[in-house]
Amino acid sequence: SGVVVFWLLPSIAVSHVEGWSYYESLYFTFISLSTIGFGDYVAGLQRGVAYWEPYRILMTMLFVVGLAFLATVFDLMSKGVQILEETVEKKTEKELRRAVESIESREQRNKPRRENKLAASTCEVNEIVTQV
């Protein structure tokens, strides 16, 4: 889809017009669309080559529209990551609530035992105190 329209097909045209290999053209279009632009390959500026004027215009339009396409892709990826993050956050919060409820439930069940032990300990302390 977008990869074909903005990367693979233009590479065929660039390869043909510039006389580069297809792999060099793939590299050029990727570097140009990603705005890295090392400058090692520059389309439409070779000395001694008579370029068809619409070629330069089409290349410019291709890269402007391609950049907009990539910006949209990155925006969608960002939104996807945000949705994933929110989902994980909700699940984590839900699991934490369950864990807290489980601990509180266990404490409620063990509370009478602790109170009995405390009462027994208090009685033992009272007996020791009265013996002294």
Shape: rod-shaped
Distance between the termini: 92 Å
> Structural class of the helices, strands and pairings?
mainly alpha
Radius of gyration: 36 Å
Main sheet overview: none
Number of helices: 3
- Which stretches are poorly predicted, pLDDT < 50 over at least 5 residues? none
Which sequence of SSEs, written as H and E, runs from N to C?
A: HHH
Question: What is the beta-strand fraction?
Answer: under 5%
Q: Based on DSSP secondary structure assignment, what is the total number of beta strands? A: 0
What is the typical, i.e. mean, pLDDT? 81
The residue fraction in helices comes out at over 70%
Short précis:
The protein is an all-alpha fold and 132 residues long. It has 3 helices and no strands.
Question: How would you describe what is shown here?
Answer:
The protein is mostly helical. It has 3 helices and no strands. It has helices spanning 2-18, 22-33, 53-131. The longest helix is centred in the C-terminal third of the chain and has 79 residues, at 53-131. The protein starts with a helix and ends with a helix.
Outline the secondary-structure elements.
Layout: H1 2-18, H2 22-33, H3 53-131
Helix pairs in contact: 1-2
Name a few traits of the molecule.
single chain, 132 residues, mainly alpha, 3 helices
